[in-house]
Amino acid sequence: MAGSTLRIAVRNLGRSPKRTALTLTAIAVAQVGLLSMDGLVNGYVDGIVSAITGPMIGDVQVHHPMWREERALEQTVGGISAALEAIRATPGVEQASARIYAPSLTAAKEDAHIALVVGVDPELEATGVGLLATVPKAELPTEGRVLVGRKLADKMGIGAGAELALIGQAADGSIANDLYIVSGLLHTTVDEVNRSGVVMTTADAQALFALHDQAHEIVVKGSNVVTPEQLSRALGALPLLGGTEILAWRALVPDLAKIIELSKMSSYIILVLVFVAAAAGIANTMLMATFERTRELGMLLALGCEPLRIVRMLTVEAVMLGALGVALGSVIGWALVAVTAHTGLDMSALAGGEMDFAFQGLVLPMKVTPRLECFDVAIGVAAVLFTSLLAAVWPAIHAARLQPMEAMRA
User: Fold this and answer.
1) Which residues pair with 166 in a beta bridge?
2) Rounded distance, CA 293 to CA 305, Å?
3) DSSP string, 215-279
4) N or C, where is the chain less crowded by C-beta within 10 Å?
5) Which neighbouring-strand residues pair with 98?
């Protein structure tokens, strides 16, 4: 019974090859558009998340409760050595590093420039996607040696080997000043560091600004087994972090988190187009096929064919039509994304040739590497199959209600 219904469905789809081909093409094009958009959005979101959770923000940050609002030099997390040890022992933590931020004036010749001194642990920041991941090992900050943001260095007219004077105010009210040698120039995805950053070791920054065993920020990077929100709750339970502010990256940069959510919403617009293309194409094809075969269907009913089998036959035709179209579109769409995934898509032409742009202090890359997940394909397939069933309802009900004698005289 099932085999004969399937054979009849295949035969009927072949009766009007042009109409069937047009419907298959419409569904396939819609599925290709959906997968292309999903791949582009996934790659775009990956780039934003990598920029956010990479060199500067991390997955979770720990601060003094007022640090993000006032950024006062004395608003620090104390007992930083013990705090880092406790954080690193927390399940789900891959890396934790302390940072110091302090405004100062810097000069290499006569003119002084406003700078932001950033104290970091060079060994930790040079790994993975840390702030210094792109810096050659020989240029990493050591005692008395610093890195200077490339844009600040260009403005000052200095390069590696230059002597740099720093002057500011220490946390105890004294004058913070010292001389340092520039070990190299730094270009990172953190725009503020590129424009005004002077990066030194945590020990040098603590000594310069009288911040013994203190830091302004602890950047925590988690493993894939926990979400940033879960990790922030786990860190909040540590006694040594009592009284501090512990936030996941979505709470730290809510505007960027909203951009990510809006980007994902664009896929649903394309999904609606898939629905429309599938529904219009299949409904039109099935209605035309039903009216053209009115006499045939009437004869089948007159010979004792149950109306339920007529319904089943038309439903199988509709589902088969949708399945073939979405399968074709899935293969083509996946292939297109796979090809562009190797080379990436350069979106800089849309931004006047700029290779990256800054937003909220972060440099977001303009090169997107498309990526697809199985869910992206599955949701398009499910949408088309569901739409195929809906599109078959009207023609199937019309066919099942035919009166055999009237249908044969049509």
Assistant:
1) 106, 178
2) 15
3) ESEEEEEE-TTS-HHHHHHHHHT-GGGTTSEEEEHHHHSHHHHHHHHHHHHHHHHHHHHHHHHHH
4) N
5) 218
Q: Which two tokens stand for residue 88?
A: 């690193």
Residue 389's pLDDT is 78
pTM for the whole structure? 0.70
- Neighbouring C-beta atoms of residue 163, cutoff 10 Å: 12
Model pLDDT, residue 26 = 80
For residues 199 and 131, the answer to whether their CB atoms sit within 8 Å is yes
User: What are the residue boundaries of the structural domains of the chain, listed by start?
Assistant: 2-53+256-409, 58-252
The angle that helices 254-292 and 294-302 make with each other, rounded to 10 degrees, is: 70
**Three-state secondary structure readout of 330-376:** HHHHHHHHHHHHHHCEECHHHHCCCCEEEECCEEEECEECCCCCHHH
Q: What number of CA atoms fall less than 13 Å from residue 350's CA on the CB side?
A: 9
- Which residue, among 294, 336, 335, 334, has the nearest Cα to 314 in the 3D structure? 294
